Amino acid sequence: MRAGSALTLTPLLRRLLLPCRSSYVRTQKQRHPPPPPPFPQLAACRWQSGLMAHYGTEQRGRLHSPDYCLYFKNSKGKYISPFHDIPLCVGSNEVQEIPAKKSRTSGNETIFNMIVEVPRWTNAKMEIATKEPLNPIKQDVKKGKLRYVANIFPHKGCIWNYGAFPQTWEDPSHKDDSTGCCGDNDPIDVCEIGSQVRAIGEVVQVKVLGFLGLIDEGETDWKIIAISVDDPESQKIHDIDDVRKFKPGYLEATLDWFRLYKVPDGKPENQFAFDGMFKDKAFALEIVKSTHEYWKALVHKKSDGGAIKCTNLSVGTSPYCCNEEDIQAIVQLAPPLLEESSVSKEAEQWHFLGR
After folding, report:
1. What angle (nearest 5°) sits at the alpha carbon of residue 127, between those of residues 350 and 294?
2. Which of 287, 205, 193, 290 is nearest to 244 (CA)?
């Protein structure tokens, strides 16, 4: 689209935007490229290279506000959905099985793409917005308030780089045999335990180590434990028992964190599958594989995703696959980046939950 030209909504784009938040609707004067990002912890308007995959991000709106969006771009600078267009396995466009034949491996290990939503030690509850076109990363809102991860002594915010695997979906209509609960309607969550503090929107290549089965308000909510392949300790950590050996206390802290993180909001402690035991890599890979199959059914309209938006650029067999012009128009309807931002005092509050 040429600069200054009027924005014409095609019938497909109108259908995509109908359920969107009103914050997307802006005047034509506001539609211009955002200035460089002032926020050091964001992987925004920059490109990831080297060992990591080649993806870029672009900020819109104002950080720590409901209209903030972090959009994703592929290596060609085209807007994409992090949920649907970034492959689950590194080196494959559409994974048919895990491990995928064309996926990059480290030894016998399949390497996965993880999208960072909440960097370690931070509090803003950022997440892939599954119900908005192109699924940008936004700050979660509940009852009209922006959500922050509570500081529960001695932990500041999240104690790992927290994010999700693309092209996975915990189907809310599927009751898991192990938990007796249905999925939480989101991509599968990942806790990356490497030594680096990552950036919001960073796409990190990780290997799976195991998982924790969380029962969150009656829903199955798997928490995959993984480590970045560029971490200095990744060559000696291959399964959940290695975490206990080389990072003593980390799994116990993780269990305690997930047990208590909603208590400051007045909710009861969370419950766990398998009596809170961490399960090994082989079991975790089966979980990842099954959630990938549920995602394929979702994006091919074989499962009812409700309000989930499956707009994508690259899944050619999906009925939700769109052309570049319509996808670009979605982003241009978002507000430009505003440098002013303020963090809620809630993010600095500490909670002491001694037991």
Report:
1. 130
2. 193
d(CA 339, CA 247): 39
Contact 311, 327 (CB under 8 A): yes
Cβ pair 295, 44 in contact under 8 A: no
Nearest to 196 by CA among 249, 124, 119: 119
What pLDDT score does 109 carry? 78
Distance of alpha carbon 192 from the chain centroid = 12
H or E element, residue 311: none
pTM: 0.83
Q: CA-to-CA distance for 254 and 272, rounded, in angstroms?
A: 12
Instruction: Look at residues 57, 34, 35, 32 and name the one whose alpha carbon lies nearest to residue 45.
Output: 57
What's the pLDDT tens digit per position in 211-244?
Answer: 999 998 888 899 999 999 999 999 999 999 999 9
* C-beta separation of 110 from 103 below 8 A: yes
Length of the chain measured in residues: 355
Between strands 350-351 and 151-152, the pairing is parallel
Cross-strand bridge partners of residue 109: 106
The whole-angstrom separation of Cα 262 and Cα 240 is 25
Nearest Cα to 19, choosing from 130, 168, 173? Answer: 130
Q: Report how far residue 141's alpha carbon sits from residue 126's, in angstroms, rounded to the nearest whole number.
A: 10
* Rounded Cα gap, residues 298 and 85, in angstroms: 14
297: three-class secondary structure by DSSP: helix
Find where tokens 């709106």 sit. 61
Question: Tokens for 93?
Answer: 């466009």
Q: For the purposes of burial, counting CB atoms within 10 Å of the CB of 248, is it exposed (0-12), middle (13-18) or buried (19 or more)? A: exposed
Token pair in block for residue 235: 């060559």
Cβ contact 53:203 at 8 Å: yes
Q: pLDDT digits over 33-71, tens only?
A: 333 333 334 443 344 444 445 899 999 999 999 999 999
